[in-house]
Amino acid sequence: MDSLTLVGLLLLAAIAAGLSYRLLHGRGHKVAGKQRVDLGSLGATKNGVPTNVLGKKATLLQFSTEYCGQCPGVRRQLAQLEYRLGGLSHLEVDITERIEIEPNSTSVRHQRYSC
Amino acid sequence: MSVQFIDPRGPRFGAGITSVLSLGTFAAAIGAVFNTTAAFVLMAVLLASFLWSVFSPASHPYQLIFKKLVRPRLKEPSELEDPRPPQFAQKVGLSFAILGGIGVALLSETIVAIAAAFIFLAAFLNAFFAFCLGCQMYLLLKRAGLLGK
């Protein structure tokens, strides 16, 4: 293969990886079936205080880590949503030290982020 | 322990320069542009740059350029970030640059090309898509408890 083509391929691979990241990142998806979420065992907190009370209409459950860059922004947006719309409750689960909670595990994937 | 939060665009600016340099290194190493000597010199520059940013991130030339020339022209950052994940990412970059340095020592274009390709991918994604691979590694390893407190 021509070596210049190889440079182009590397560049294309990087752009493709970046675009697919952008496409898949933060995308919502539907889940089949309902599952009751146990806030107590997840260790959900509201403003830093442990809670197991769901919102009246819906619960926004945010999973964050201590160092994550987007978490504060998401936190502000969800808190604003909670403030503007009635019946919502914005809760958070800090998964920094909780390796058992995997973003892709069924227990978390099946939670409903309904609005 | 309090940590001085940083403007996330600082590391991304540095990654932009690194991605250009590493693409040049890759191209030279496989003989598309310049010659192999250029590839070895560029890889040595990359290695020096990563060493600098791991041992003294605040005094790194890229960050000085960013602070003096780029940041004053940008809007206030919407978010400051914890410097620990990007600093860990620099260490990951350094390990690939060390691999490249070994390639230079062995006069092996192949090793230099492979190291430059990995550095380019990570730096490019960070600079242009705000996706920092090393930072994600830091979060995962931290959660797995492999990095200590």
Biggest sheet descriptor of chain B:
none
H and E order of chain A: HHEEEHEH
Total strands of chain A: 4
3D shape of chain B: globular
- Number of DSSP strand runs of chain B: 0
Computed CA radius of gyration of chain B, to the nearest angstrom: 16 Å
H and E order of chain B: HHHHHH
Rg of chain A over CA atoms, rounded to whole Å, is 19 Å
Contiguous helical run count of chain B: 6
Low-confidence stretches of chain B: none
- Round the mean pLDDT of chain B to the nearest integer and report it: 86
What is the share of helical residues of chain B? over 70%
Termini separation of chain A comes to 53 Å
Helix fraction of chain A, binned, reads 25-40%
Q: Strand percentage of chain A, roughly?
A: 15-25%
How would you portray this structure in words?
Chain A contains 4 helices and 4 strands; from the N terminus they run H-H-E-E-E-H-E-H. Chain A starts with a helix and ends in a 6-residue tail after the last helix. In chain A, strand 3, helix 3 and strand 4 form a beta-alpha-beta unit. Chain A is elongated and about 65 Å long. Chain A is of the alpha+beta class. Chain A is 38% helix and 16% strand. By secondary structure, chain B is mainly α. Chain B has helices at 9-29, 36-55, 61-70, 84-105, 109-129, 133-143. The longest helix of chain B has 22 residues, at 84-105. Chain B starts with 8 loop residues before the first helix and ends in a 6-residue tail after the last helix. At the A-B interface, helix 1 of A face helix 1, helix 5 and helix 6 of B.
